[in-house]
Design brief:
Elements lengths: L1 E11 L3 E12 L8 E13 L11 E16 L8 E18 L6 E19 L6 E3 L2 E12 L5 E11 L2 E2 L9 E12 L4 E13 L6 E13 L4 E9 L23 E2 L4 E10 L4 E12 L2 E2 L3 H5 L10 E14 L3 E14 L12 E10 L4 E10 L2 E2 L4 E2 L2 E11 L4 E8 L7 E3 L2 E2 L4 E8 L2
Antiparallel strand pairs: 1-2, 2-3, 3-4, 4-5, 5-6, 6-7, 6-8, 8-9, 8-10, 9-11, 11-12, 12-13, 13-14, 14-16, 15-18, 16-17, 17-19, 19-20, 20-21, 21-22, 22-25, 23-24, 25-26, 26-29, 27-28
């Protein structure tokens, strides 16, 4: 059973705006991974500076926000052992202030300053334990992010700088205060009306407490060529820095949440070749072939990472992907959307495919809006076989249905059904996914 609610309120004034948002969701009991509680609340405001010639604040906007998020959930059993159960609680307080301008006559820029404070508590109980072990790491992160650009005829130079400091309090590992820097520059050159070339370089600096300082310099480039009024082609090469590149409790892999100063041998890179067609409201299609490469992560105790269930963080990984997606308007009030993804990967540590990365996946949905206020959407999703270490997980198909009825211009009711065929499938090894699930609610908007 899942109960939830969400609210968003916006108020626009002559020179600014205010907003507030909040949501709560509680799910009770189909296996551990579906037993959780989430509550969040945030407020923010923005102000537009008046237009003045020769002023850096002309046509600029300053905005700020404060957010609080609380989560309570069960963590997957360590190493996929069912005899260990961890109840995790996280409380995140985040804030930021941004100054941005996209139409300033002197300089376009974005400057963001902010921070976060995260407190996490894990309570772990194993089948053979009579007591519960508890650990409570915390961190306070602060960041500055700046981007600037200006157009000079056919040239469009840009510069960027980012700094993040994340003091980490003892919980799972030793205390640490790593600092992450990123700065670079580039330019875009409109050679012809159809051909645009962009190039630049970025420097990454990791200054840690436990691991020595490392510096990485990576080029980036892109070429975009218009084949016609509706067709475009592009080729890009760029580094990728994710939340797993440097320290932080908020990692995609929950078992690495408390591990400090994870660092790659090399910065992950991505190269993409694409072709796209866009005919506005009638339809669009995009086809991409991409190659990604990630590197082994350094850790203050390398055996700790190797023992984790997610071995994607050990050894270099290469992923080759083919993606096809698009939508098409059908009849007067109908839209059909679809996507196909085929991917092959190789992890040097496993000498096999990357765990839980499906060989293929796809989705097909059809939405129709009736003239009397009812909107219906049917979706079918397919996920292919996945490597789970010692076994292969079978493919599965899931069908969903969503109905929304507009009672008035302000009030709507909705009903959603997930897995309407009641398919029994496994997303993670030994953890069966949720069966047929239905819910509904009412929404109000200004």
């Amino acid at each position: 059973t899942t109960l939830g609610g969400e609210a968003l309120l916006k108020h626009r004034m002559e020179k600014g705006d205010l907003f507030a948002r909040g949501n709560v969701e509680d799910a009770n009991g189909f296996r551990n991974n579906a037993d959780y509680t989430v509550a969040s609340f945030g407020v923010g405001a923005g102000y537009w500076f008046p237009s003045r010639r020769g002023n850096l604040l002309s046509r600029s906007r300053i905005q700020g926000s404060v957010d609080f998020n609380a989560r309570r959930y069960y963590l997957f059993a360590n190493d996929l052992r069912a005899d260990t159960l961890t109840r995790r609680s996280t409380n995140l307080f985040a804030y930021q202030v941004a100054l941005l301008s996209r139409q300033n006559p002197l300089l376009n820029y974005t400057v963001t300053l902010g921070g976060r404070h995260l407190f996490m508590t894990d309570r772990t109980r194993a089948a053979a334990m009579t007591a519960t072990e508890e650990s409570s790491p915390s961190e306070s992160g602060f960041f500055l992010d700046m981007n600037m650009d200006r157009r000079y005829g056919q040239l469009h130079p840009s510069a960027r700088l980012a700094v993040e400091v994340t003091p980490y309090a003892p919980g799972y590992g030793p205390s640490s205060t790593p600092v992450f820097f990123r700065f670079g520059a580039g330019t875009s050159w409109s050679i012809t009306r159809k051909l645009i070339v962009t190039g630049g370089a970025t420097v990454y600096v990791f200054n840690g407490t436990i691991l020595p300082t490392s510096v990485r310099i990576y080029p980036e480039a892109s070429i975009r060529y218009a084949l016609g009024s509706e067709w475009n082609s592009y080729l890009t090469f760029a580094p990728r820095v994710s939340s797993n590149t440097y320290t932080g409790l908020l990692r995609e892999n929950p078992f690495l949440a408390g591990d400090v100063e994870l660092r790659p041998d090399e910065i992950p890179i991505s190269a993409t070749l694409g072709l796209e067609f866009d005919r506005r409201v009638v339809g669009s299609i995009r086809m991409e072939v991409s190659y990604e490469s990630t590197a082994r992560l350094h850790y203050f105790d390398t055996t700790a990472v190797a023992d984790r269930w997610d071995v994607a963080y050990n050894g270099s990984t290469r992923i080759l992907r083919f993606r096809l997606e698009g939508f098409r308007r059908v009849l007067r009030n109908g839209w059909i959307r679809g996507s196909i993804l085929v991917q092959e990967s190789r992890n040097d540590f496993l000498e096999a495919r990357l765990p839980y990365l499906p060989l293929y996946s796809g989705s097909l949905s059809y939405e129709y809006r009736f003239p009397f206020g009812l909107s219906a959407t049917a979706t079918i999703s397919l996920v292919g076989q996945r490597n789970a270490g010692t076994t292969e997980l079978d493919p599965y198909v899931v069908a969903d249905l969503d109905l929304v009825y507009d009672i008035t211009s302000h009030w709507s009711v909705y009903v959603s059904a997930r897995n309407i065929t009641d398919s029994r499938y496994v997303v993670w090894n030994n953890y069966q996914a949720r069966p047929l699930f239905a819910g509904g609610g009412i929404s109000w908007r200004l």
